[in-house]
TrEMBL record:
Residues 257-282 are annotated as: Disordered. This is N-acetylmuramoyl-L-alanine amidase. It holds the Pfam family Amidase_3. It comes from Flavobacterium indicum (strain DSM 17447 / CIP 109464 / GPTSA100-9). It comes from the Bacteria. The lineage of its organism: Bacteria, Pseudomonadati, Bacteroidota, Flavobacteriia, Flavobacteriales.
């Protein structure tokens, strides 16, 4: 065999190995707190320990999926600064960031799980959760410089955290909804739904990202569940199931995947029935039609689509996807007009709103819509 042929064979082998590695769906698991930061502690239940044990269990379950790769921000009891968690996630070029925590409340009757996406909130309870989780920065040296004068005790600091990578908000809401659905299936605990708040750990993550409050360590019964091997396994099964289901729905369509990873026609036909419910909510006059809407919010509650409920905006439509109601402003086939509608929505205070493109009753990427 000639030297040229040997070189070509080696090159093809390396390319194949790189492709095999890159085709995997990469999940970043972030166990909250750690080391000198204990998180919430009640009745002998320590948040940092519960978060780590559950995160490791999620990782073990996901190892059974041949096309999923797991990255941990910590896999031992160490203190990791919030910015470093973001650095680990972004350097890994992950597809999903899952931060795991436990809640606490002086009212020890409070119970249930909830999942947060990055966003602005004026809800007092959401602000309190964010303030509690963000307080970890005070354990970091020079935190006021590093985090632009951030003060975890001030609500305005929480509200003022800039929302980066807002194009990932919708997918963050999707995985958050799947987590809450899975919790209902795998655990006996109350679902408190999907919420928005400003968390420092999420602010620099360049991928869909959520923060899960798995339950209240301050509640004696729920705290015992969180601190038990059985409870952690059920929580891990729920979170892992949500991740796998999310991957099935979204990974094949990501633009950074090699063409060999694309779904075959027969597989696509198998998946099609899952999307039937979506078609009932969006109309299209022909298969070739593409139109744009502005997604302004998402909620676990159904809200009447009248202007008074949406800061005066008219032409509001709603689409239900499983347990989440998505609210849209306007509709146009002109992308330039869609950008104008986006500015109108932002001017009304919907600063994290974004454009979505619809073709034949299915959402497609903006890139595909305007090419």
């Amino acid at each position: 065999m000639s030297v040229k042929k040997i070189f070509l064979a080696v090159f093809l082998l390396i390319s194949f190995l790189n492709w095999s590695q890159n085709k995997k769906f990469k999940v970043v698991l972030d166990a909250g707190h750690g080391g000198k930061d204990y998180g919430a502690t009640y009745h002998g239940n320590i948040e940092k320990n519960i978060a780590l044990k559950t995160a490791l269990k999620v990782g073990e379950i996901l190892k059974n999926e041949h096309d999923i790769e797991v990255v941990y921000t910590r896999n031992t009891d160490v203190f990791v600064e919030l910015d470093e968690r973001a650095n680990i996630a972004n350097k890994s070029k992950g597809h999903l960031f899952i931060s795991m925590h436990c809640n606490a409340n002086p009212n020890q009757a409070a119970a249930g799980n909830e999942t947060y996406v990055m966003g602005i909130t004026k809800s007092a309870s959401n602000l309190e959760v964010a303030k509690k989780e963000n307080a970890v920065v005070t354990l970091e040296s020079n935190y006021k410089v590093k985090y632009d004068g951030f003060d975890p005790k001030k609500p305005e600091s929480v509200i003022g955290i800039s929302i980066l990578q807002e194009e990932n908000l919708q997918q963050s809401i999707e995985i958050a909804g799947k987590v809450q659905q899975a919790f209902t299936k795998f655990t006996p605990n109350k679902s408190r739904g999907v919420k928005q708040a400003g968390f420092l750990v999420l602010r620099k993550i360049a991928m869909p990202r959520i923060l899960i409050e798995m339950g209240f360590v301050s509640n004696k019964n729920e705290g015992a569940f969180l601190n038990s091997e059985e409870g952690q396994l059920k929580l891990a099964q729920a979170i892992a199931t949500a991740i796998v289901n999310y991957k099935k729905d979204y990974f094949h369509s990501e633009s950074n995947l090699p063409k060999k990873q694309e779904v075959s026609k027969e597989e696509d036909k198998k998946d099609t029935p899952k999307k039937e419910d979506d078609k009932a909510n969006v109309t299209s006059s022909s298969k070739e039609d593409i139109f744009f809407k502005i997604q302004i919010s998402a909620s676990a509650k159904k809200i009447e689509t009248v202007p008074t409920n949406f800061k005066g905006l008219k032409s509001i439509s709603v689409q239900k996807e499983k347990s989440i109601y998505k609210y849209f402003y306007g509709q146009t086939s002109d992308y330039k007009k869609a950008k104008q509608l986006l500015e109108e929505a932002k001017a009304k205070g919907y600063t994290s709103s974004f454009i979505v493109a619809i073709q034949n009753g299915k959402q497609i990427s903006i890139k595909d819509a305007i090419k």
